[in-house]
Amino acid sequence: MKEEELKLDALVIGAGVAGLYQLYLLRKQGLNVKVIDAGSGVGGTWYWNRYPGARFDSACYIYQYLFDEELYKGWSWSEKFPGQPEIERWMNYVADKLELKKDIQFSTVVKSATWDQQRSSWQVSTDSGQKIECQYLISCTGMLSAPLENVFPGQDKFDGDIFHTARWPKESIDFSNRRVGIVGNGATGIQVIQTIAPDCKELKVFVRTPQYVNAMNNPKYSDKDVEEYKDKFHWFQENLPKTFSGFEFEWQDGSWADSTPEKRREVLERIWENGSLELWLSSYKEMFFEQEVNDEISNFVREKMEQRLKDPQLCEILIPKDYGFGTHRVPLENGYLEKFHLPHVNLISVKDNPIAEITSSGIRLSNGQSFELDTIILATGFDAGSGALTRIDIKGKSDQLLKDEWNREIKTMMGLQISGYPNLFTTGAPLAPSAALCNMTTCLQQQAEWISDCISYVNGQGKKVIEASESAQEAWVSHHDEVAEQTLVTKTSSWYMGSNVDGKPRRLLSYIGGVGNYREKCLDVAKAEYTGFNIT
């Protein structure tokens, strides 16, 4: 058989955290399965996001695979929140240990996938013209893997270098003689700014939306530290999938209403000093539902930021006032705020004076003000959750294109399937916790296991096709929206709501009912022989 006419039981798109595990699980079933990835190596997010300062904001000891104790304990981390080079080495360790690379085709982009109703299979085409037929198609394309790159007029006119953080070159870049402009100050932009600021000749930071930040506490690990977290493997394995966020911490300080003001302050101060995402995901859950509680916690974080920024003008631009803490993604940082005190770092607010265009020499704002630059860094974010799939021409059983449907309204069945697209499974897709609100390895492992078990069940029944019913999908969408609308998150414009992409339908991308609760609902579906799915 020619290479370009490959026939498979299952094709997995993406060689990141989900894709590697999905390959491992399906191969264990004896299926003929391959992975395709656009990168030249494994890693997914951690292959592409090699920008300066890229690192975990989940603690290393929980951002791991928990299905194999030997695999877990065979790798030792150097610090609590390691950087991208170490993370990429870990991903390669996993792929080598499990002998996965022999079934991965690198440097290949999936361009289209069409469901063939008569053959009950997917017909897939790649950028090289390769044709692949597969019974099952599993998207492990990542929730933040479709970068918003061409966002300003005139980018092709710029005489200097333009880099998007999600497509950073492998070669190191010397900023010491350069006038650098960075657009964006979300989690990625913050990591870049705090890392390169001391090295630039000049650095101009263009900020539209201020961000609440939490100072990262990132200790280096001794042998004893490593031994201690490895000893907790079974505890992590048992408990992480049951928590609200897939992290090791859970709501543990009681309710806001039952605490005195002194007790609340004590709790907030203690968690703040921990320097992790705990303040966001495990302080007081009322923060997500009650405006008064959110206001108090937001003021606490503003106070902490003001103490470090000092300068009223910096505070005005960098500290949020029109939305609450935790309703956006909360970045961890390490010295980010102090970088704006450096004499060669300039802060430019573009909230009321947006960027009009990129010229041959730099950036011009709407009021005509121009900034001459040698290098422009775009930390402009992603078409999150849905973008990786809508950039592929995926055609369902009625010849409908998924991108057209999702341009009207984003729907899925539990973030695992989409009605009208038989045998297409998704991880990290909208309406599941893995779209945003989760320690990713916790959620992606759970989804990969559910998909593997589902395929095993279908094959074991002597059937060929499974598809989410439209009624079950509508019921899940209704439940998802009902839970989401009880929170303050839906009242805020952010990439969580698709607000960063013009014309994107507004819906909370991530299921916010809790990781443990979602897992139980998925298990219930499986135990009921995949109720809500049509199997033929």
Question: Could you give me the name of the CATH homologous superfamily of the domain at 5-146 and 383-535?
Answer: FAD/NAD(P)-binding domain
Structural class: alpha/beta
Sheet bearing the most strands, described? 8 strands, mixed
Radius of gyration: 23 Å
Instruction: Tell me, rounded to a whole number, the average pLDDT.
Output: 96
Uncertain ranges: none
Commentary on this structure:
The chain has 536 residues and is an alpha/beta fold. It has a domain at 5-146 and 383-535: FAD/NAD(P)-binding domain, CATH 3.50.50.60. 31% of the residues lie in helices and 16% in strands. The strands form five sheets. Strands 1, 2, 3, 4, 5, 6, 17 and 18 form an eight-stranded mixed β-sheet that branches. Strands 7-16-8-9-12 form a five-stranded parallel β-sheet, covered by helices on one side. Strands 13-14-15 form a three-stranded antiparallel β-sheet, with no helix packed on it. Strand 13 (355-358) and strand 14 form a beta hairpin.
